[in-house]
Fold each of these.
Amino acid sequence: MVFNFEDENGTQQMKILTVDPEDILQDKIREISCTLDEVGIISHKDLGSASPGSLGVDVVIGTGDFSRHSPVGEVLLKWRTHPETYLVPCWIGTNRDTFEKCCLWPALTVDRFGEQMEASCLCDWLAEVADWQQNRMHVGVSHSFSEHSPLELLTSLSLRRASGTLTVFDQEGNQGRFHLLEGSLSGAELKHLRDEEAFGDLLSWTAGSYHWEPNGSASGPSHCGQPLERLIAQGLQLIRDANLLFHFLSELGQKISRTESEAALDDGAVPYFQQIRKLYHLIEGDMSARDVIEISPLSKPRTMNALAKWLSLGDLQSRPLEDQPRKHRLLIVDDSKLMCRALETVFSKDPRFEIVGIGHDGYEAIRLIEEREPDAVTLDIQMPNMDGLTALKHIMIRNPKPVVILSAFTKETSRLTYDSFKYGAVDVFAKPSAGTLEEMARNAEELRNRIIQASCVRIEAAQYIRRAKAGNTASSSDADQEEVNAGIVQQRVIITLCGTGGFPSLLKLLLSLPRSQSLPPIVACMALSEKVVEALMPNLQKDSQLRIQEAQDEAPLTPGTCYLYSHECRYQLEKIKKHIHLKASANGNGKHRPFDTLLYSATEALGDQTVAVLISGTGEDGVDGLRCVRQAGGQALVLSPRACLKPELPQLVLDQGYAREVRTPCDLANLLEGYPRSYPAVGAT
């Protein structure tokens, strides 16, 4: 295979510079040399004092240690920011995310990241580079920066001495305009930045898109008039200087704070002094460097440069990374690129989150979960190739993660919401929609908090229990009637308190229990509205092997049956001639404490035969009731806070010593099945 690169003097031999301090590439380079014709290999160790621009290098391949102060990273950055070599493509032997966390990198679209430098892959990349060299001057009307990076685009416009208006868009929808006149910048506005600062900020972008209108507004502002070539060289040097910040910080998420020193603010003659002074005083308390960059009145490279200077002079101090709260790693999956950008905006400004990937269908969700190991996943339902529910089933079997379904079709009462919980989702949330600014801000904050809660939930692998039905409905009803005719009644009742966020676990519990006359009646009070409970009933009755009924006043309890009701109601147990009945209770003393009301009555009616279960929740309703259960000698079980979406109430009960902790809903089902039961005859005294 022959690669010829054409320059103004004709064809030239391809030259590969290797930056390989640990000699990792030796065998690979020999293999490439044997595979490719007319390829020259240069080691950075042999460069000496030669100027990068004098060597005619076509590509740079770097591998080794990419940690902070990495010599490999330093050499790569030197080549990328040199005015004569910044268009030399680089293969960087590490993960892109890892590299860009510790380096502000002015990218080329043909750059390659990855540790697997097989000879065949390198050959394919060199062919891609050759094609890129021939076509990089072509500028379309509208493109993503993944097709033409800002560095490539601006270089092309400079070499063509272009006139027109370049409109750019970042991932958050912010828009900027750059007015060009014969290869010079005549004016620019990007967010709050102007002219050179706007230009320098654009060079540091890694995502977004652009629209080019040649000659469209060539007569725009003319107070700047700086040649693009000079601005590119200045911007690259500023980016190189900005990377000094990583000599003081491990990553931009690290916290910084001001000290009493203000040594760097003594010289009022430095460029942009007023903005720099304003930036310094914007740093209040402990802030991450990323947050400071976000609010800075200056471009990202110049802000990083200022932070590096202040840290070196002692005007700022940094907190060790290990002392900082760990970020919640989030994967976003939605087929709508617009929605993905909106969600990125919602989460990227919150220092508690790190967005580790974006997928657009179920297949990508499964792959990215395995590659990126997120703490939580937002998953859309309606997607091409593989929809959200199908993906959810695979995720819960192959690599269980807390999943929050985010869809426009998931109202509380919808079948999709029920199925989402059935197949393992931790929470369901309606997609952000338009409204007043206050409403949108509240919705965004609630979504962020719900994702934080979800990411803390311990997820068990899906266990789809499919027990054989205990006969058909008719035979089961006959068996029930025979037991009633025989005068058999229960002595135990399982009281289940399903607090806020507990329905997914309650559903798993109910679907794990068998239909059996040896199972005591279950009375479940749920922190859901009456309307939602009513809508859930048909789905539960269809899927559960238990008999599922809505609680009714004066109803006698039957073994093997679960009675559900909303916490908006109040029910209590009443013992009538050894039979246990449900009885509606009026609100008393101005307090509505449905959990405690049910538990107090159960303790009075059943004594030490009471079995109580708490799943998730907030507040204190249920704490006193569980204390009464324990004092009466009954059994009290709490689903582990680590398995609950709302762990506050379970943790409070455990801290008081009122209940025993159970790890998972399936463990809970096994315990309830195994409790001893006795059913004395009616009329026994």
Note: DSSP finds 22 helices and 30 strands in the chain.
Amino acid sequence: MSEIKTHYRNCNICEAMCGLEIKYQDKEILSIKGDQNDPFSKGYNCPKATALQDFYTDKDRLKTPIRRTATGWEDISWDEAFTEIAEKFKGIQNEFGRNALAVYLGNPNAHNLGNAIFLKPFMKSLGTINRFSSASTDQMPHHVASNFMFGAGMLIPVPDIDRTDFMLIIGGNPVVSNGSMMTAPNVIGRMKAIQKRGGKIVVIDPRRTRTAKIADQHLFIRPEKDALLLFAMIHCVFASHSVNLRHLENMVDGLEGLERIAKDYSPESVAEHVGIEAIAIRTLTADMVAADSAVCYSRMGASTQTFGGLCQWLTNVLNIITGNFDRAGGAMFPQPAFDLLRNHKRGHKTSFGQHKTRVRKLPFFNGEFPVATLAEEIQTPGEGQIRSLITVAGNPVLSSPSGHKLAEAFEGLDYMVSVDIYLNETTKYANIILPGTTGVENSHFDIFFNSFSVRNTVKYSAALFEKEDYQRCDYQILNELAARMTDSKVNPYTPEMILDMELKSGPYGEEGMSLQKLIDNPHGIDIGPLMPCIEERIKTAEGRVDLFPQLYVDDLPRLNAVKSHPARDENYPFDLIGRRLVKSHNTWTQNSERLVKGKNPCTLEVHPEDAQVLGISKGQLVKISSIVGEVEIEVVITDDIQKGVVSMPQGWGHNQKGTKMSVAAKQPGVSINDLTDANRVDTLTGNAALNGTPVAIRVA
């Protein structure tokens, strides 16, 4: 037998960018461990990394194209698949218009070097404005806030967690997620370091999460009331004359208008709605103001709700007016080696609202429409109706609101294609499935997550195993389809060619940053901590921060209506929220034997007092229903959940006929998105309101 070798790479399953050390022999992986010499993760990795081996060896994984027929699926050649797809898509567009074709992009595209680079020219080749993605299920409020406050949707401030003295976490569970819109391997170690240096961590959440359990303080909050809490804290900052802009003093607009409206949100006026006493809100604000450095980090619970846009705007505002923006220990901008904003000019005209969806008139932004509107755009007849679709590495039937309604819509399409390695709950509706290579067969560089990183680092990972001749990389599939759609030659560039050019043209290029330099440093290169850089990074026309964009002011009557007339549907008396699990990532890790083994993780958490009133006990099956659907699920009774609130994880429901994910089928769970309502969105940004869904519970 040949010798045992070692390969170093970044894990590309979640956002944390953990460095891995992989021992292998020939084409067999022997072990996957944390890379002790990775300057960013320093040997840390979570259980999900083992799934890279499981994906590579998965018997259910597709490697060549298949086509759906009346009698089942059949193998076809790549050429036959590409020829048919181009013919069908062109025919539909010729008959019904360019926008009769739509694209859905799943979360794994952000973790794929080739797709991250080549999706833009691929989209251009299709000529449609109908693009949808997972971004509008969880993060669009961040991008909209950055667009209107700092001039670019990708200019996202992240917590300088390694140097802060006070960290306020609203609706986030980074100990489990490894950070989200905050790339930070070993969050638990980084948080304990805050406490070790005498700092404080406070978590605001309707659930006592794993993050809350290691924090110094946890406050329960009613779902979807985070914007009121943030406003009350901002009120306190103004009322106590504690505003401190520091070096931003002469580059911030809108402070007076902000102070004027904040007067209406005293802690006393919001306490009952929020579920936190006024004195606790005042103390929380005072603690943040008094800290040498502080940062507020709002995430999933604050984004995936009907006021997600307001939450992310107010989070930025709070960090700015307390003097904790663009400053060590506060909210800062990374300076990535591959700079996605390199060609983004100051004053660039925003695409926000450039188009609106046909049916609900929700806004277009960042090159896409809200995915919550996809089903109705397919099923509503008329000019511009979507009649064909291509999904790339996504499973929206399980990951998007009203997923079962989306399945009905997919079934009615004229033609559908999926680029995916699995026959799953979404791809089973496709006419053709095109499988790409995955994980260890691909080279990797984190284009997006270096832009959200809590430290400036850079790392390239070559492919561990060469693909077989009969396989195609995802980017090769996209480039071939683009060539067929435009009757042109296939793009001759590789991801490595583009990567090398961008590294050399980026902010560290003058220091010799290049692909070769990264190849010579397989553990990665530490560039250093986040640095103040707002003056050079900001992209607004005048180079100033807008604290008070009119877009948010116009949305306040909607928030005030909740404050003055809190609605409650007696038929659905509970608020449903999601939860993250350490050993799963959205919908695409459930076919890994090592990640799903053990007891059923897809359970409904219920408060003991609620359980007593309902007459249910631990382990019992209950029916949980919403205005759009009903599922049966096992109950866990715990005081970690707030009374009146229930919680279940998202990404499950692998129990549908016509799929081929045998491991996932053994531990299928149920889909939370059979309960979430596609009509519940943050109307400001179009983001899905997955949290706070009104539900009813009864014994099954």
Note: The longest strand covers residues 630-637.
Amino acid sequence: MAHQSALIARDIEAYLEQHQHKSLLRFITCGSVDDGKSTLIGRLLYESKMIFDDQLAALEADSRRVGTRGAELDFALLVDGLAAEREQGITIDVAYRFFSTEKRKFIVADTPGHEQYTRNMVTGASTADLAVILIDARKGVLTQTRRHSFLVSLLGIRRIVLAVNKMDLVGYSQEVFETILQEYHDFAGQIGLTDITAIPLSAVYGDNILEAGSNMPWYHGPTLMGHLETVEVGEALPTRPFRLPVQWVNRPDHTFRGFAGLIASGSVHPGDRIRVLPSGRESQVARIVTADGDLEVAVAGQSVTLTLTSEIDVSRGDVLAAGEAPPEVADQFEATVIWMHDEPLLQGRSYLMKIGTRTVSATIAPLKYKINVNTLEHTAAERLELNDIGVCEVTLDRAVPFEPYAEDPTLGGFILIDRFTNNTLGAGLLHFALRRSQNVHWQALDVNQQVRAQLKGQKACVLWLTGLSGAGKSTIANRVEKRLLSLGRHTYLLDGDNVRHGLNKDLGFTAQDRVENIRRVAEVAKLMVDAGLIVLVSFISPYRAERRMARELFAAGEFLEVYVDTPLAEAERRDVKGLYQKARRGELKNFTGIDAPYETPEHPEIHLHTQQASADESAERIVAYLSAAGMLSKL
């Protein structure tokens, strides 16, 4: 069972009071696969007497059934809870465990060693104060050791325990230990890790875990537990300026309106002047409300509800900040991105970004370079693959309050999310706002879209025709435009082939070039809609993500997706330009429908089946839709 204290029997209330005020250390174990991370944590739990009798009995049974230590206890089984982990003898998911000693409380995250689960390691490291980086004494410093160390450095963890494990398998050699230590120091110095405590140990036999033992008399440093119990945990957040990202507007009735959230840094008192960002409006704190009553002061790490002395607009995602020291607000940044998904990051593609409590649209472009974790070399890249780390520029659809990640992880860290699946794709760290984001502002104009469209006697919109090559998009778009012109409407047709002669002549047909192709055309179409025109866009536009990005540039009802649905066999049969034949022969790479995907629209406004209707009939259907929707009527 858990470690015992004399106070438990003598004065349980005093024990609980003492336990409540112990400091808390959050740490992770990471490194390469099969370095013994789970065994190490299991040994810590066992030695600190955090295993109850029934758990010990289950461990003994599991060790006999699926353990890797023969008749001995397999401590890794205390942590590896997934069936797949036990079967393979590896860690897949992040396993969190709590334990305590007389001196301190601990939360440890056991993170996977396999490269494919690096994203899980990032999750575990995001809240840690210290990292225990394990190295198998037989293998030395490996690529995954370097990758995890680099990620630890990026995420702001500065205290490192270099645990050289499995010393029993190298005869407890001091020379092996010192060789590994020198190699690691050489790499760590390049990434800014200097606070390193190196400990040789054997997790299986307990050497240098709680007790030094007799196998390594040449080592005179602390044991692992001794170091974890005494290492200083710096806490700079209370001394930084006040920041509270608003999670919820609390309005139980008409008499109360408060703004709830977790204080990210600083402290706040009733009467303090605060600024709401990004709006910049100011007010004063009236009350600090909690479930246990009002407070006279609240500090970083507390969840509270603040009420203000004036009625100003505050929404979820806004940041309440110290009036005299607010964070910056910007919509363009340089950032480091850690990509954590099998589908690559593509330049120009739009993703959802969650930063603080706010979710916005983000576009990654340009991707400046990716980083080789072995050499730290910067190499040119147009995409990031799984586990790649790159530096890029990020453009948002609106300005957000932020601080560099190195100063405040809450307002400087973000995740990227897939718009359709809501999967987390990557994690990022903001460096700084781009200067142009501070220098470029919207210019107020007296003549707007409504005035321009009214002059033309129509409602502006974009008809986005998408489908395979040979589906008939350009033919149908051309006939729609002629019909609209005969009705006296003002139009413009953006055709995929024609645009590539000028605006997009520098783009090829790779996935990232296709993304940029659509981004540029969508922005041009937006300008033309602002000019009051009915814009026809005829592009294959194979990816749903980019079509959705285009849609989100426009107001509700302005973007009409037209799916020109033609089976691949029929498109190949038509093949007026001979493109499919070239693609089949391998002469044309990345051709949609052959060796590049086409993602069909899920909910198009207009769905045309070109095998069932002629080009003229399809065009008339589009015009009829516009008329019924009121797009051809005067405003």
Note: Residues 328-436 form a domain with the Elongation Factor Tu (Ef-tu); domain 3 fold (CATH 2.40.30.10).
Amino acid sequence: MPITDLLRNNAKNYGNEVALVEINPQIQEVRHVTWRDYDLVESDKAQAYRREITWRVFDEKSNRMANLLLSRGVHKGDKVAILLMNCIEWLPIYFGILKTGATVVPLNYRYTSSEIEYCVNKADVNVLIFGPEFIGRVEEVVPTLHQNRLLFYVGDDCPTFAESYSELTANCSSADPMIELTDDDEAAIYFSSGTTGFPKAILHKHRSLSQSAVVEQKHHSQTHDDVFLCIPPLYHTGAKMHWFGSLLSGSKAVLLRGVSPKYIFDAVSEEGCTIVWLLVPWVQDILVALEQQDLRKEDYKLDQWRLMHVGAQPVPESLIKRWKQWFPTHDYDTNYGLSESIGPGCVHLGVENIDHVGAIGVPGYGWKTKIVDEKGNVVKPGEVGELCVQGPGVMTCYYKDPVATAETIVDGWLCTGDMAQLDKDGFIWLVDRKKDVIISGGENLYPVQIEDFLTQHPCIKDVAVIGLPDPRLGEIAAAIIEVKPGVLGDTKLSDEAMESGLKHFDSEDDLRADVEQFCCGLPRYKRPRRIIFADVPRNPTGKIEKPKLRKMYNAEQLVAHENKA
């Protein structure tokens, strides 16, 4: 069943119930707008602290978008790109594109103008829909776009080089165009993270989208009464595919614009959220805020919150143990996936397997896994190899890149590029990205294992381990460590923070000595040879930006070497 049928069903069965809520805490004046009709002034909608949309209007908005595109000659095989921050317009636009039979192309809102140009051309985009945050970047590339490419603008004060989405769709029919779709029709192109250069274009069929909805609902048992809090960017497969579980159950979802522990607790409390998907840095921030009493659980309505799940990157076991101390009744799940496997769910821990926290889990619903050596042979439990997955959510191909496709999909198996091992109980443990493995003095070092150990230090908030060149060993492990507030500097720790195990250090040298002593718990060859205190950069989906760190500290090391010479 194409994913568009789920929206039609919800409009029919739950038409007057709330489908989506947008919360924008950065709007100072608290105003609430129920977006049920079409006579609201666009500026009124844009300035609302809280906007909501029913399933009926969600469906009608998608129909208006579809009919606009069809009237401009868009049809099956065409590509329509979305370049928007999370907002209540995002998903109706997404489904409107799908209802035409065209392929939707979500774009990363961090893209520079050159990356936007590259992705639009790579995916053969016919229409680009963008918001006010991107006017400057889009304007830069307009001269290089072919003349018949359409540009629609979502927001106030439409620039002269584009057309107004709100004005055009207001004059379009809200009737469903009912374009026939099958599971084998092309549905979406998602772009990879681009950690090794410009991103790859990942093509999925409708089957992949429908599979992700079923997987999410099977894993987390969403009912019509659940309320899902969505914080990560909708352009990424992770956020949207988790929301597809809400789509399948016809339940409400909340789009939160802006991330802070207070914003999250406010949204959970005010909207009655029962399911929250978090990234590792947000979990860290919440725990720090609780430990330092910047947040007090008793000030919020949190009893209905039943599930906290984390994905997009390895999750330290110590982090979840701290979480369960604060929220002992929460179910917990971690989800593993790639954009090539339509986001999360090809491997998941499962809420019943909290005793195996730290593992990424077992094959997800409808998925198969194997761990292989360099020759493609399945390795024994306990041995490290590359994780491969197989299932109905595997991408069709890298669009217009047959060489990369052949390297990644082998005999129907998606080679993930992640190194993993299977334990005696059948649980998969992520070791590291293939390209992130550090070879030091002939030994393979897996940064994730070192990171997991270091996160157990009570003063460490976040850590990234990278390889840096070394003339003797080839590479050494360097740990970039972000400490918790109050550990260094003039700020003093509260009594509550001290009781939780935090210490205060007057200098980085004193803290470094303490961390080095802590690392004696690691085998000698795994201990970081260099410790750097700095912020750990993560992208919008929570992944550590290790290429950026390697470039930064490789350059720094080169300058130091030249100065020494």
Note: The radius of gyration is 24 Å.
